[in-house]
Amino acid sequence: MYVRPATREDRTALPALHAAAVEAFGPDGYDVDQVRKWAKADDRSPDDYDVDTADEHFTIAVRESEVAGFGHVVLGAGEVHAVYVHPEHAGHGVGSALLAELEGYARGQGYSALSLQSSLNAVGFYERAGYERVSEGESPGGLAVVEMRKEL
Question: CA 112, 104, 46 angle in degrees (round to 5)?
């Protein structure tokens, strides 16, 4: 497995990967209707993943010649926006490698801390990576989330 910056060509794999991850792992924190709305695979397109924005950094993990996961940090906000792993590649360190790369990138850009809104099913993953709970809230899409923060 290796991790690298995402390219425009990588974007074609991201909508299906995103939906597969939500459908596989979302039920660990949300009901069927919430997962369906969150996954909304038919509403996603490669254009939703703007890998060329200067203020954002997208990265992908490649495992067994496939895009196994992706991560996204928004530098202006100092926020990890996403870490998604395709269920066929879960449990192989893909999410941890993506998160470590995002943190290293942010650190290299001068950030000393990152925040994120964790889905309920991912709180344990982020806690194991050193993030601490700050508060509970709601995502823009209406899902319950846990606000978390980590000093880098």
Answer: 115
Considering the entire predicted model, what is its pTM? 0.93
Instruction: List helix spans (H) across the chain.
Output: 14-25, 32-39, 94-108, 123-128
pLDDT digits (tens, 9 = 90+) for 78-131: 999 999 999 999 999 999 999 999 999 999 999 999 999 999 999 999 999 999
CA distance 144 to 49: 23
Which residue ranges make up each domain of the chain? 2-111
Q: What is the CATH number of domain 2-111?
A: 3.40.630.30
Task: Give phi and psi for 96, each to the nearest 5.
Answer: -65, -40
Six-digit token pair at 136? 């509970």
Per-residue confidence (pLDDT) for residue 42, from 0 to 100: 58
Helix/strand/coil for 9: helix
Residue carrying structure tokens 């978390």: 148
Q: Are 28 and 121 in contact, with CB atoms under 8 Å apart?
A: yes
